[in-house]
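Subject: Sanity check before I submit

Could someone independently write out the structure tokens for this chain? I want to compare against mine line by line before I put it in a report. The sequence has 210 residues.
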Amino acid sequence: MDQMVNFGGFLVAAILLNLTPGTDTMYIVSRSISQGKLAGLFSALGITAGVVVHTLLAAFGLSLILVQSAFLFNAIKILGALYLAYLGFQMIIAKKTANELKSLPKTNNKKIFLQGMITNVTNPKVALFFLAFLPQFIHTDATASPIPFILLGLTFTLTGGTWSLFTAYFSSLMTKKLRENSKIELLLSKMTGVVFIMMGVKLLNTKVSQ
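---
Independent answer below. Compare away.
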């Protein structure tokens, strides 16, 4: 803790930042509304796992490479955008609803978890945020150690994960009645697909300077 500066201030800032709607929140809400509570919760857990990956990348300096290499940055950005577009098109062309696919819940939940993690990990804007935000709360003479980055990153992960799970649960709860109608559920799934594609387009507009 002595390697960190104003941990209380960091905690308040982390909570406020997590409460601010962003790409991850939109992703979780979209999943929860269209596919229900479990899909939302597993998406939230996947996003949270992605934040842990970014924490480790920032702690061990790999994110710095991403910032310094425009080619690598753009490559990851394009991969992330294509992946979101792929998920979106899959949902748009789907003929069955989530209720009709419940025969394989374990496989689907694992896939949803991995999809959430991949969408977060392939968003270079998250890596830039960690590099810009975390160092403000670390002593300059402690930057050679990954420990303060890891502690701050895990704190951010805990607050963000809690909020993500809360968001997933209540988003699904509020739209439960809608999903009980298979036609509306399929429509919500297609609308979520459109949202994912729009998120991919937005990701393509991310600049290295951000």
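---
OP: Matches mine. For the report I'm noting this point. The longest helix spans residues 147-174.
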